[in-house]
Design brief:
The complex is a heterodimer.
Chain A lengths: L4 H11 L6 E8 L2 E8 L5 H14 L8 H9 L5 E4 L2 H9 L2 E6 L5 E5 L28 H11 L5 E8 L5 E8 L5 H13 L9 H7 L11 E3 L2 H9 L3 E5 L5 E4 L17 H30 L7 H11 L6 H21 L2 H21 L5 H14 L6 H35 L2 E2 L2 E2 L47
Antiparallel strand pairs in A: 1-2, 2-4, 3-5, 4-5, 6-7, 7-9, 8-10, 9-10, 11-12
Helix pairs in contact in A: 5-8, 9-13, 9-14, 11-12, 11-13, 11-14
Chain B lengths: L2 E2 H13 L6 H9 L3 H25 L5 H9 L2 H33 L5 H18 L1 H27 L16 H9 L17 E2 L6 H25 L9 H10 L6 H33 L5 H14 L4 H51 L1
Parallel strand pairs in B: 1-2
Helix pairs in contact in B: 1-7, 1-9, 2-8, 3-8, 3-9, 3-13, 4-5, 4-13, 5-11, 5-12, 5-13, 6-11, 6-12, 7-9, 7-10, 7-11, 9-10, 10-11
Classes of the chains: A alpha+beta, B mainly alpha.
C-alpha cells in the first residue's frame, strides 16, 4: 500500500479530533512532498530541527532509489528511525513523542525519536533517606529510570521487557531482571498477569498491585516497592524482579518478604554490629506501635495488679477523676492521632508547623489539663504513633491493627492480646509471595539466610543468594569462579 | 503442603512440653512422691524413642498418608479401627489441653470471667490454623518455641536459688512400685509422639539434618525436667496442691503475693504455646476423623473439632476434676495402645511386608 501524504495527514488529524497540539509541516524533498507530523508539547524542538528539518532541507544529492530508504540511511541524523507499514502504528508512536515522516507515494512511514522528556531531576526520595550511600532516586520517567539502572549494571545479563498497558493511557510498563538470577517461571507469570490486565489507564505503579498480588483483599503488603536504583539492583541481585511504570517513581518488586521492610539501604553501608541492633530496635518499634495501646488498656482494666506498686500508684494518681474508661480514653486518642496525621499530610506545607503546634501542644495539653484524658494514655498513644513510622510503608496497616488491638485489649484483656498476636503471626505465615514464604527466613527458618535477617553479616561473607527468595537455584553463588 | 525436617523437630518439641508443665507434676507427686521426676524422665524418653521409630517409618514409606501406609502393612479393615481409636486418643488430648488452658487463664489472668465467651477467640484462632493446615501450625511453632523456651528457662533459673535439694532425698524411699503405679495412672499425659502418625506423607526429608530431632527432643526433655526439678524442690509435699506448675513456681520465687512483671510475660507466653499445642493435636484429630469416616473435605471435621472444644467449656471445674480422674484412668490403656502398641504393630507389619516383597522380587528374578 502506498501512502498519500496529504490524505494520510488528514486521516491522522481526524483520528486525533483535530487537536490543536497536533502539528504538521510540509517540506519538499526534490520532487516528493514530505509531511512531518508531531505533537508539539512532547517534541524536542531542537532535536526536531537538528535531526529532521535541517538534514532534509540541506540534502542536495538527488536520491537514486527508494526515497524512504535514502532518508533513513543517508539523510536523517537521528539515532532512532523506525519504519511503519500502517497508519495506526505510526499514530500510536506519534502519541508517545515520535515525529512521523510521511513521504508521498511511499510504502512506509518513518518514525523518528525526538521525544522531549519532561520530568523532575533525579533527587533523593523522601521515603528512603540515607546518611551514607547513594542518594539518587527514581523519577516519573521510565526512560530515566532505566538509565539509572543501566548505569549501575553493565552486563548483558540484564533483561528489560517493555509493554504498553491501559486502553487509553498506553502506559509503558517495564519488567527488569537478571536473566541468570531470576526464576523464569515467576517472570513468565508476571508477564502473563500484566498482559491480561484490561484497564483504561495506569497512572501509577500501585495500579498494578492488585493484579499482581495473590491475596488482593488482604491489608498486608505483598509486593515490594522501591524508590532508589541501588536498592532495586540489590534486590535484583538476590533474584527479585522489578516492574517499572512510566509516570511513577515507584518500582515494584517481587517476590516480597516481610523482613524487607525492616531492612534499609543504609544497613548495607554501615557496620554490621550496629545494623543488627537497629533491626532489632525496628522490630521492637513495630511491636510497640501495634500492641502498646492495647496492652495498656488491658492492664488498666483487667490486670493492674501485675504493675509494680510504685508505678501503679503513679498511674492511679494521674487517672483519678478522668470521666472516661481507659478504653474510651485510648480509643479517642488513637482516632484523634489518625485525624491529625491525615490533616497534617494533606495540609499545605506552610500550615504544617501551625497544625503540629495546635495538634500536639494545644489539643494534647488542654485535654490533659481539662481532665478528659490522662497523661499516661497520651504518652502511650504518642509513643505508639511515633514508632509507626519506623516502617513508613506499612504504617497504614499497622494503624488499623492498633485500633483492633485496643478493642481486643478492652474486651478480652491480656489473654485476648495474646490470641490476637498469635492470630496475626498465623495469618502472616499463611502468605506466599511468588513461591517465597512471607515470614521467611524466620518462618520457615532458613539457616543460610540468617546472614541478612535480623543481623547482617559482612558483605564478603554473604556468599550465597538468599534461599527465602525464589530465584534461580542453579546460580546461587554470588562470587566469581576465581574467588571460589 | 509439606513441612521440613526442622519444623517437624519443633513440632515434636512443642508436643513434648504440652501438658507437662501445668497439673502433671502435682498429680504425679501424690503417687510417687519425691521421685516423680524420674517417672516423667523415663516416660518422656520412651516417647522420644517412639518418635524416632515413627519418623523412621515415615522416611522409609512412600505412602501418601498414614491410612495408606497402614493398609499396605495391615490390610483394609484394621487401619480403620486403629484410626477410630486414635480419634478418641486425640479427642482426650485436645480436651485436656483446652481445659488446662481454661483453668490456667481463669486462675492467672482474671478474677472472674465467662469462659464460654473467652473461648471464642481461641476457637477462631485454632480454626484458622487448622484451615491453613499443618504448614501454618509448624511456622507459628517455629516463632513461638524459642520465646517459650527462653521464658520457661528464665522462670526456672530465677527460682532455682530457692530450691531445697534435700526435698529429693532419700531416693526411692517408698521403693519402685509407686513409680510404676503413678506412671501407669498418668500415662495419658504422655504418648505425645502419637501426633506424628498423622504427618505421614507431609514431611519433606530432603534437607534433613539428622541431629535436629534429637536436639529438639532432648531440649524439650531438659526443659520439662528443669521445671519439674524446681517445682518439687520448692513445694515438696505441698506439690499436689499446686495445679499450675509454670505459674506457681514463678509466684513462689518472687516472694510476694503476686507474680512479678517479667514472669507475667512468661506466663503469657505459655498461653500462646498452649494455643499452638491445641491446634497441633486438633489437626491430628481432624486427620484421624477424615481417615476413619473417609471424608475428603476438611471443613466438616474442622467444624466438628471446634464445636467439640467449645462444648468442653460448658463443663464446669468441679465436674472436670472428676472427669479428669475418670479420663486419666480410662485413657492410660488408650495411650499405651495408641502411642506404643500401634507403632510397634506398624513396624512389624512393615518389616513383614518388605520381606514378602523381597521374596516375590527374588522369585521373579529367578524365573526370568
Amino acid at each position: 500500500m502506498k501512502f498519500n501524504a496529504v490524505e494520510t495527514q488528514k486521516n491522522i488529524e481526524t483520528k486525533l479530533h483535530n487537536s490543536s497540539d497536533v502539528k504538521s509541516r510540509t517540506v519538499q524533498f526534490f520532487e516528493k512532498t514530505i509531511v512531518l507530523m508531531y505533537i508539539a508539547d512532547i517534541t524536542d524542538n531542537v532535536l526536531f530541527n537538528q535531526t529532521i528539518i535541517a538534514p532534509i532541507i540541506s540534502y542536495n544529492v538527488e536520491p537514486q532509489g527508494d526515497i524512504v530508504s535514502e532518508l533513513e540511511s543517508k539523510v536523517l541524523t537521528n539515532h532512532e528511525v523506525v519504519e511503519y507499514s500502517s497508519e495506526q502504528e505510526a499514530l500510536d508512536d506519534m502519541l508517545s513523542g515520535k515525529t512521523i515522516v510521511i513521504v508521498d507515494g511511499a510504502e512506509k512511514i518513518l518514525g523518528i525519536d525526538v521525544e522531549k522528556i519532561t520530568t523532575r531531576p533525579v533527587m533523593e526520595p523522601p521515603t528512603s533517606v540515607v546518611v551514607k550511600g547513594p542518594r539518587e532516586g527514581f523519577t516519573e520517567s521510565i526512560k530515566y529510570n532505566l538509565a539509572l539502572i543501566r548505569k549501575r549494571v553493565r552486563t548483558d545479563d540484564l533483561v528489560v521487557n517493555i509493554m504498553d498497558i491501559g486502553e487509553l493511557t498506553k502506559t509503558q510498563v517495564g519488567i527488569v531482571y537478571f536473566d541468570s538470577v531470576a526464576d523464569k517461571a515467576i517472570v513468565k507469570d508476571i508477564e502473563k498477569k500484566l498482559k491480561k490486565i484490561q484497564i483504561d489507564g495506569v497512572l501509577d505503579a500501585h495500579y498494578l498491585i492488585s493484579y499482581l498480588q495473590r491475596n488482593p483483599k488482604s491489608m498486608f503488603k505483598q509486593i515490594g516497592d522501591v524508590e532508589k536504583p541501588d536498592i532495586l539492583v540489590g534486590k535484583m541481585l538476590e533474584g527479585r524482579i522489578g516492574i517499572l511504570v512510566d509516570g511513577s517513581p515507584i518500582v515494584l518488586t517481587v517476590p516480597f518478604v516481610l523482613i524487607e521492610d525492616l531492612q534499609n539501604s543504609d544497613d548495607y553501608y554501615s557496620q554490621p554490629i550496629r545494623v543488627g541492633f537497629i533491626r532489632v530496635l525496628r522490630l521492637l518499634g513495630v511491636i510497640l506501635a501495634v500492641v502498646l495501646p492495647g496492652v495498656y488498656v488491658a492492664l488498666e482494666i483487667y490486670h493492674y495488679k501485675i504493675l509494680p506498686t510504685e508505678f501503679l500508684v503513679t498511674i492511679r494518681n494521674t487517672t483519678q477523676g478522668i470521666p472516661f474508661s481507659p478504653f474510651v480514653e485510648v480509643f479517642f486518642l488513637v482516632v484523634l492521632f489518625e485525624i491529625l496525621y491525615e490533616a497534617n499530610l494533606r495540609m499545605p506545607q506552610y500550615f504544617g508547623m501551625a497544625m503540629s503546634i495546635v495538634g500536639a501542644l494545644i489539643l494534647g495539653e488542654t485535654t490533659v489539663n481539662a481532665g478528659l484524658v490522662s497523661p499516661p494514655a497520651v504518652m502511650i498513644v504518642a509513643l505508639s504513633g511515633i514508632t509507626f513510622y519506623i516502617i513508613p510503608s506499612q504504617a497504614a496497616q499497622f494503624s488499623l491493627l492498633r485500633l483492633a488491638a485496643v478493642v481486643i485489649g478492652a474486651c478480652l484483656g491480656l489473654y485476648g492480646m495474646l490470641i490476637f498476636c498469635v492470630f496475626i503471626l498465623s495469618y502472616l505465615s499463611s502468605f506466599d509471595s511468588y513461591k517465597s514464604a512471607y515470614l521467611a527466613p524466620t518462618a520457615p527458618y532458613i539457616e543460610s539466610d540468617q546472614q541478612d535477617n535480623f543481623k547482617r553479616d559482612l558483605i564478603k561473607n554473604m556468599k550465597k543468594r538468599p534461599r527465602s527468595i525464589a530465584n534461580n537455584r542453579h546460580n546461587d553463588d554470588r562470587r566469581s569462579e576465581d574467588e571460589n | 503442603m509439606k513441612i521440613n525436617y526442622r519444623q517437624l523437630s519443633i513440632l515434636v518439641f512443642m508436643s513434648f512440653i504440652a501438658l507437662k508443665c501445668l497439673a502433671l507434676p502435682g498429680l504425679l507427686y501424690s503417687e510417687s512422691g519425691n521421685m516423680s521426676w524420674l517417672v516423667t524422665l523415663v516416660l518422656m524418653f520412651v516417647d522420644f524413642i517412639f518418635a524416632l521409630l515413627i519418623i523412621d517409618l515415615m522416611k522409609k514409606s512412600n505412602a501418601k498418608n498414614i491410612l495408606e501406609f497402614m493398609q499396605q502393612c495391615l490390610g483394609p479393615v484394621l487401619p480403620r479401627i486403629f484410626m477410630a481409636v486414635l480419634v478418641v486418643k486425640y479427642a482426650l488430648v485436645v480436651a485436656n489441653i483446652s481445659k488446662g488452658l481454661e483453668f490456667f487463664v481463669v486462675e492467672n489472668f482474671y478474677s472472674s470471667l465467662n469462659w464460654i465467651v473467652f473461648v471464642l477467640p481461641l476457637i477462631i484462632l485454632v480454626g484458622f490454623m487448622l484451615y491453613k493446615g499443618i504448614r501454618n501450625i509448624a511456622r507459628v511453632s517455629e516463632m513461638v518455641c524459642w520465646a517459650v523456651l527462653l521464658g520457661c528457662v528464665y522462670i526456672a533459673v530465677k527460682s532455682i536459688m530457692s530450691v531445697d535439694v534435700l526435698n529429693f532425698l532419700p531416693f526411692f524411699k517408698d521403693g519402685v512400685a509407686p513409680l510404676f503405679k503413678s506412671g501407669y495412672q498418668h500415662m495419658s499425659w504422655f504418648g505425645s509422639s502419637t501426633f506424628l502418625l498423622m504427618l505421614f506423607g507431609k514431611v519433606d526429608f530432603s534437607n534433613e539434618k539428622k541431629m535436629k530431632l534429637v536436639q529438639y527432643s532432648f531440649l524439650a526433655i531438659a526443659l520439662v525436667m528443669l521445671i519439674h526439678f524446681v517445682f518439687y524442690g520448692l513445694f515438696d509435699i505441698t506439690s499436689p496442691t499446686h495445679s499450675f506448675c509454670i505459674s506457681d513456681i514463678s509466684q513462689y520465687s518472687s516472694g510476694q503475693s503476686s507474680i512479678d512483671e517479667l514472669s507475667w510475660l512468661v506466663v503469657s507466653l505459655w498461653v500462646t504455646a498452649q494455643a499452638v499445642q491445641l491446634a497441633l493435636f486438633s489437626y491430628a484429630m481432624i486427620q484421624a476423623i477424615k481417615f476413619t469416616f473417609n471424608i475428603k473435605t476438611n471443613v466438616f471435621p474442622i467444624l466438628f473439632v471446634l464445636i467439640y472444644i467449645f462444648a468442653w467449656s460448658f463443663i464446669g471445674e468441679m465436674t472436670v476434676r472428676l472427669e479428669q480422674v475418670f479420663l486419666t484412668q480410662f485413657s492410660s490403656i488408650l495411650t499405651i495402645f495408641t502411642a506404643y502398641v500401634i507403632p510397634i504393630i506398624l513396624y512389624i507389619g512393615y518389616a513383614v511386608e518388605r520381606r514378602k516383597n523381597k521374596k516375590i522380587r527374588g522369585g521373579e528374578k529367578c524365573k526370568s
